[in-house]
Amino acid sequence: MIVFDFSGKRVLVTGGTQGIGLGIAAAFAASGADVIVSGTRPTAQDYDDDLARFTYVQARMDEPADRARLVEAAGPIDILVNNAGQSHPDEYSMEGYSRVIDVNLSAAVELSYLCFPVLRERGGTIVNIGSCASFIAIGYAPAYTASKTGLLGFTRAVADQWARDGVRVNLVAPGFIETRMTAGVRADERMSGNTLRAIPVRRFGTPPEVAAAALFLASPQASYITGQSIVVDGGLMLR
Q1: Contact 239, 198 (CB under 8 A)
Q2: Where are the beta strands (DSSP E) in 120-187?
Q3: What single-letter DSSP state applies at residue 57?
Q4: What distance in Å separates the CA atoms of residue 158 and residue 120, rounded to the nearest whole number?
Q5: d(C-alpha 114, C-alpha 68), whole Å
Q6: Whose CA is closest to 68, among 13, 111, 108?
Q7: What's the pLDDT tens digit per position in 200-232?
Q8: Which residue has the higher pLDDT, 55 or 184?
Q9: pTM for this one?
Q10: I need a labelling partner for 99 at 20 to 30 A (CA). Which of 3, 74, 110, 201 fits?
Q11: Which helix (H) or strand (E) holds 35?
């Protein structure tokens, strides 16, 4: 069994206050890392979960000034996890479309660019959190689909460019995970049933299962892996 040891490493997880982000942050912390998480609320105490084990920084991913402030507050990091993301109730409006692209894609791009110098210096790595929507279309969510598809392309491009600098970049693509974002699907008996029938393992995934893939890609055990994606979906994409 591989046991990950991130003692002495500093990790920045955007959107690490809940759901998949919290699962990833908690797993890194349990493996010895010093973890910084970002969120949109004023303080860590404004969240339901106990975030005391992390350093909390308020940062709105749709605000370039907040992105820059987050990187400055995080200081020298070894691992960047671009997890923060959102959907919008009307992605067929330019307002909704632009907001999702800004948060899900542009923020990850800018944070990667801002963190690159220190990651190059420290032999660091980036793990982007994509989605099955990086590979398949979600008709009611064109912006979410475009942002996650774009994040996959960005991952591959910068992995190619930055490999010579010793910075690895990979992506984890979750399927239906037990988070706030999927709560509506899971609460609706018809939607939940249809979704589970499409997933060969017949259940929703959990944040720790996504975290395991993220920690692997960030670990020395994955030192020969870059520009790749790991799908964590219970077999959904086999359909």
Answers
A1: yes
A2: 125-129, 168-174
A3: E
A4: 13
A5: 7
A6: 111
A7: 999 999 999 999 999 999 999 999 999 999 999
A8: 55
A9: 0.95
A10: 74
A11: strand 34-39
Structure tokens at 162: 């930055």
Cα–Cα distance measured from residue 83 to residue 86, given in angstroms and rounded to the nearest whole number: 10
Tell which residue, 8, 43, 40, 13, has the closest CA to residue 25: 13
Joined together, the tokens standing for residue 30 give: 């349990």
Model pLDDT for residues 86-136, shown as the tens digit of each residue? 999 999 999 999 999 999 999 999 999 999 999 999 999 999 999 999 999
* 144 flagged as catalytic: yes
The DSSP output letter for 169 is E
Report the half-sphere exposure of 234 (CA within 13 A, side-chain side). 18
Tokens 């801002």 — which residue? 114
Q: Tell me the CA distances in angstroms from 43 to 40, 186, 216, one per residue in order.
A: 9, 29, 30
Angle at 209 between CA 205 and CA 210, to 5 degrees: 95
